[in-house]
Amino acid sequence: MHSSNSPDSSEETSMKYFGCAWYPEAWPRERWAEDIRLMKEAGINAVRMGEFNWGRFEPQEGKFEFSDYRHLLEKLHENGIAVLLCTPTAAPPKWMSSRYPEILKSDKTGQPVYDGNRRHCCPSSLKFREFSRRITEKMAETFRDSPAIFAWQLDNEIAAEAEHGFCFCDGCAKRFRTHLEMKYRTVENLNAAWNGAFWSGDFTSFDEIDPRNFKRVSWKAEYAQFMSSLYTELAYEQRDILRQVNPSWKITTNSWTSFLPDVAPDEIYPGLDFASCDTYLGNDSLEFSHSFWDYYRNIRGKRQAFTVGETGAWNPVTTQKDAYQVLRTWAWDAFAHGAENLFYFRWRQSLMGEESHPSILPWSGNPGEAYGIISRTIREIRAFSGQHPGLPPPESNVAILTDRLTGFITKYRDDYSYFHAVVRMNQALNETGVHADILPLSLITEHTLSAYKLVILPQIEHLPDAVCRFLHEYRRNGGKILAQCRLNRMDEFGKYRMESAPANLQKLFGLHIDESCNICKGVDFREFEYNERTLPENNRSLDVEFMGKQARLLSFMEKPIPDTCRILQEYTAGLYQGAPLFTEHDGAFYLAAPMNREGLALVMRHLLKQCGIPRFHVPPKCQRIQRGTILFYINNTADTAVFEDDGIELPPYECLRKEIRER
Amino acid sequence: MHSSNSPDSSEETSMKYFGCAWYPEAWPRERWAEDIRLMKEAGINAVRMGEFNWGRFEPQEGKFEFSDYRHLLEKLHENGIAVLLCTPTAAPPKWMSSRYPEILKSDKTGQPVYDGNRRHCCPSSLKFREFSRRITEKMAETFRDSPAIFAWQLDNEIAAEAEHGFCFCDGCAKRFRTHLEMKYRTVENLNAAWNGAFWSGDFTSFDEIDPRNFKRVSWKAEYAQFMSSLYTELAYEQRDILRQVNPSWKITTNSWTSFLPDVAPDEIYPGLDFASCDTYLGNDSLEFSHSFWDYYRNIRGKRQAFTVGETGAWNPVTTQKDAYQVLRTWAWDAFAHGAENLFYFRWRQSLMGEESHPSILPWSGNPGEAYGIISRTIREIRAFSGQHPGLPPPESNVAILTDRLTGFITKYRDDYSYFHAVVRMNQALNETGVHADILPLSLITEHTLSAYKLVILPQIEHLPDAVCRFLHEYRRNGGKILAQCRLNRMDEFGKYRMESAPANLQKLFGLHIDESCNICKGVDFREFEYNERTLPENNRSLDVEFMGKQARLLSFMEKPIPDTCRILQEYTAGLYQGAPLFTEHDGAFYLAAPMNREGLALVMRHLLKQCGIPRFHVPPKCQRIQRGTILFYINNTADTAVFEDDGIELPPYECLRKEIRER
Amino acid sequence: MHSSNSPDSSEETSMKYFGCAWYPEAWPRERWAEDIRLMKEAGINAVRMGEFNWGRFEPQEGKFEFSDYRHLLEKLHENGIAVLLCTPTAAPPKWMSSRYPEILKSDKTGQPVYDGNRRHCCPSSLKFREFSRRITEKMAETFRDSPAIFAWQLDNEIAAEAEHGFCFCDGCAKRFRTHLEMKYRTVENLNAAWNGAFWSGDFTSFDEIDPRNFKRVSWKAEYAQFMSSLYTELAYEQRDILRQVNPSWKITTNSWTSFLPDVAPDEIYPGLDFASCDTYLGNDSLEFSHSFWDYYRNIRGKRQAFTVGETGAWNPVTTQKDAYQVLRTWAWDAFAHGAENLFYFRWRQSLMGEESHPSILPWSGNPGEAYGIISRTIREIRAFSGQHPGLPPPESNVAILTDRLTGFITKYRDDYSYFHAVVRMNQALNETGVHADILPLSLITEHTLSAYKLVILPQIEHLPDAVCRFLHEYRRNGGKILAQCRLNRMDEFGKYRMESAPANLQKLFGLHIDESCNICKGVDFREFEYNERTLPENNRSLDVEFMGKQARLLSFMEKPIPDTCRILQEYTAGLYQGAPLFTEHDGAFYLAAPMNREGLALVMRHLLKQCGIPRFHVPPKCQRIQRGTILFYINNTADTAVFEDDGIELPPYECLRKEIRER
Fold first, then answer.
1. Chain segment C258-274, per-residue pLDDT in tens
2. In a shared domain, residues A415 and A524
3. Together in a domain, A56 and A122
4. Which of B94, B119, B132, B326 to mutate to test the interface with C (most CBs of C within 10 A)?
5. Which residues are within 8 A (CB) of B139 and not within 5 positions of it... i.e. 6 or more apart?
6. Do B271 and B306 fall within a single domain?
7. Do residues C570 and C582 touch, judged by C-beta distance below 8 A?
């Protein structure tokens, strides 16, 4: 099972592992065999193990104890269950922080964070790093030849800021200063990049820089980026140990549900073997998950099947009788988007500590409805997957670009949610049956864009010069571009540019922009952009005519000054009435404001027609997506879904597969 | 007046003392006589004094000064006003914390709390304990023979967490570790009880335990329980000093308005002579207060009249012309529920510090409307009480059990409000004219339950084995039981059990339960369960048919698997449609979900009929309650109230008393 | 330009300077000439400079560098642009806090505040004070003879609490204790004044006083008042240095938008040469700004033209096509209220740090709509102003008194917003075309009130004895008085008085008051009083009949007991039904509750008639205001405004000027 099943072998990328997180250490030893039996019976062929077990692996400093896991891996292997083994560094044992309090993160006041649950260790602590390397080495040596292991997961949901905030200890601050010195070389360069002159903010020495005191958005973003790298370094340290011991091991980690976990996915995954993203079921966030998968499928700089590292084994929508079925369509949906492994969190409900997490088995250990529906789902998808081996991940001729710097900046700017802007754009495509590849800017090369007919740039506030060149080249070769406001108005330090926007791209779009304004004031843009239902009247949007219909502008608008572009639509109301809202210059389209769903649908209708990409009617929250030769129709709702253009009526919570000749 | 009026003398338990809190130290000495005259004129025959006067009792360390209070007690006694004298340890003088900063509580960061108002002292500080004992000794000796004192109050609204959070100083942490060592004996036992294995949470030594770092709900609950005991110990230290000086003194303390003050009432009151609960008037919390009184009436392990230690002397509902009258019905209501003393807070409005507290006299000291209505109320109730001496507290044949562990756990779990579940259940009874005894589990003995026809267990998550035995025995003797979901699903450490629920009681109810789910998500259950008005549409409840009518399920539901029980009602909607919602097995009823008021009314209608307990129509917020031979009808509203079954029309804010032959 | 244009020269008080804040240090040196050219072209004839430039003025400790500014001042002067030069102490350079961390403010836990942006220095730090003096000296000497300077601004938006909270370092605490000792002389006096007896709050020594621990409202207010004085002292230290170097310099500072910046305007401005208040455009706060200007026009103890130190160069209401016009009417509005200078914040949008502040030029530096509308506005107002030189500030025969102690107390009491009560009252006047002088109590003399026909006391909780005497004298001379509830119920220490209210004024009003109550409970009075739209039903107000119509009482009411007064209106509902609500005793009117806009309009109609002051119909948010011989009609709305009594129809966002003979 071991090497032939490695996730990289491109011939067999259909669904491989259905698994779950299992914490045998927290349950009676007598129960283990029964758990394995029940897993096997359910069709579960993988478990994720070990990520919270450092305390039992190393019960005292330097004393290691792996016999239980050695036994478990054997038993699992005998029963055809593969293991995704984890380094346990997310939850170091209590003795470690008691004996070496210096390993704890510090908050801004110098106070150590609590060590009661997870992620409390300082990433720059030499002592912690030493412990991290040693436990990794011991595990690697112990399980060097275990045939049960199909891959390794480094740590668990590696995060720099999420659980306790960033570490602000002297050690981290010192490493940060060294990083800045290496990056900027002189303090004068740093002052220039950081706009130090304002508010007497010039530094006279790198020693004066204290990340705890940062109040400017871009300075915070720089620290966040530094922290992402520091954690990536820590993970790679573990990766290298594992690779040295057994070069054939496949290695990943798992990112928590977000486009921008504080350890940047486009930074960490290119150095690992495959991507794993935790994606929890929740109806409100369905559109978010679809886009998220479209992103992780491309996160290593090439299209590749991905793993859903964690998903809930339960359905939060309980007021519907048939709501169990959501678990089924959710799994089909992930598979259709390119998942090749899917891990439920967790096998059995925790007795204390994380007791509210929905699990396959309840506290009592007796199988119930979740166990039943998951078993059925596994059987179904494995059967289908067996009949269709080697399905490639979905392909697309539309790309949406995303930018890490814009992500960090908007996070600290307390402004609109940049990644919701991405989702909104992809959702507008999905509702026409089109699925985009979502590509991180940092991995774009001169060859990337040529694969697409349409490239979308949703509110990307900074574009590196190289990407601007690629866009010009792509455009010259006939590709279409859609950009949405705020384009490349910042430099690489997060400062606004002292020139008209979009920098380097004015000729491409045939316009330039000096002025912009917020449509609403005193609004939490974040919530607003994602959920129009929370809008109060008349304050947070501007209704305009758009391409012959009605649309609503949200939160912000720019006033483009046309140079050579054609105006497709003017603002018909508001401060910029009469100015261009939607323009085209020779295949390069510019949309000057965020828009509601209806507005974006009109934009897409126009664009896709121009690109010659066929459109299909897809009901809300449903999916029409092609993977290889299979066309999936998925109904994630409690109502019958009618795919009008395909003449298909799909019952609630169903998934229909249609084999097609041509892709 | 002294010994004959002691609250324990069972022959004369009708209303004894109407009093108020008086702070003569904060007012000009010249005013004292006038205050006493006005009190006497109003019929006030008791004052609560001294609880905030440590600063004047001991103006410098070791220098004591009681002459003012000695004088005041004499004058009060001459005027027929008894004194509830308080130890002043709630508000230590400023010189104490200035000279001995170690007496201050520490917060989680090691920072001392501010000493500007109250409750800032560490309960484990040996220095503070020494001061506490000495002031108590000095007061006891000084007032040893004062005939004015009718009882003592220890401290004031003793609280462990409420005003400054728990103390987390090294001394408290050390005592906690000793407590754990004595309780669990080995760290292995503790790890097993505390589910240490998850998240690498095993301790290798008791020394590693640091309550400041607790993040798991049950660990926090253990610290809270420890703190409750520590404060009880501190209070008992004072009690013992007082008893040694004058064994005839009656001693109490006063709990702030809650079922679960952080110093547990069922822990502290059994060792005192009578219970005193602070209960403020407020229309929204009327149901809460009724249940609260039903609880304090039973808090010492036997039915006993109680004291309302503080109540507001003002009416918050000021948009109604006749709103003053609320003060009258409120006092009648307390009396009908078993109050024998009632203390208004406070005599005269504070000039600075607590100036917003409604008082009998305004700042100017001139009597106004509050003085007038309170005088009238006192005259009325005293006259009635004189004609009916020795009225026992209300009796009941229905008991509602409550559990301290469930209370602590749900408090830290940030889940539903357990005590609101209790109130909701009692309210459903009250609306049929039935009043329950609310009994703390910790005081249940093998003889307790036999006095009842119906015992209700509302969402009690842990039941000790002994109580399970008592329930079986009670059932065998013909008593009926109603349990509501979540029953006994946790062990005594707050961990979920590794077996089907309800543990030890499956045979009694003829069913077992493995699965449950939340009906809503992302909801603050606390607010929600108490106030359905804040419900958004379709997200937080599930409408079902119930016993031929409609009811709404709230927040949570279980899926019982019937073994021998009879299904009275299935779920007619939602995830568990078709599964049992309401069952009976031989007099033991199980309700698998929290329900709205209408639903619980249907449950009670069914139950009371089965038990042969008569039901009466009672309008909302009104009361029909019997105390001894008197049946009280109380209208707490601004509208005429019609008690249909009794043929009584009661004007707004009125109380009717009817003498009846049989109880 | 220099001395002849000084703001004190009373002959030419029409609009003098239109300016903007300019931060040349943060922009390329090559751009400076272009910026000056564009300013000049726009008619800008002043810039505010230097307030955030300490870092470039003193790049290393003791090394000063003014050549850039010397050059800039020359260039500006050559171009007819005057300079409001600022001491740069709001934003000390980074090297200072790095080298001398003791200059940083401490929070309550002893933690230094972050030094990343502004206002982080301790006002009592001797080191910081030394630096502050030295940079002021150096700047004064450097620019001693610069003809470009028309005035100095001390620091920037001096604030004690606003950005980082008060400083609570040992040094500040020590100075505070000295202050208390000098004020109260003995700790017994302090205990009496501070009501120490309650809660054992007596101090036995001044050394025990720790402002970090204050929980009582009045104690906090005392610290706030102390801090206001400390910052005033710091500012005056700079003022004295400047005056010594060049006695002809005019000196001001700028207050942020509030009646009660934490450095009290009525404390600091009497010692400066003219007042400058920052007032940002925002439709919701239009009424607030009008009252604010009426206050700053009188803040130095005499009527004087004022400066708008900062105002936004952008319009937040962007959903209206003609919304740019708001900038024009806003400037006219300020001018009509007595502004003689107006500074836009800021010249060009910041690249990083304060990037969201609306500016005249966008990031790109290219003039757009804001530049255009501001240029037009400047041209217009300067032309008009040139034809009407020497217009005095608006005069009034109505005064509204305000009290600093009430302001501080209500701020910490977390009660109603006292200053919104002032605005509400003034707004009721404005809507009849009457404009009040808003006068700080601290500056009232025996001669002040005689200039008025009507004096209004809105919820002033403390009145010094002298002011009571002035009021009696004023009344004897025939002046009318309107007082609104809560009048003089506190003593000078913020304690409630032990006598009936209004102290010292019972005879004047012919009534006395003992009782009062809140109409609503659990309400944030602050928001509520200002915005009735957030009212839930039936909880936060009381509808009554009033003077033949309907009015709504808000949040609070008193029950006056009439002695000699005439009752104009009784309460017609609520707890006090039948008691007096609005009374008169011989020209002294008392209104016993806060009221909504409709109610206050009825009060004003009655009052103005009694005073013989003519009333005019003014549409909402519009103004009818006279300055000298010019009557301004201003329409701040997007609709046509009809001034019915004047027969004037004013288009949206327009200002009409009418010359009139008699004032």
1. 777 899 999 999 999 99
2. yes
3. yes
4. B94
5. B50, B57, B66, B85, B87, B88
6. yes
7. no
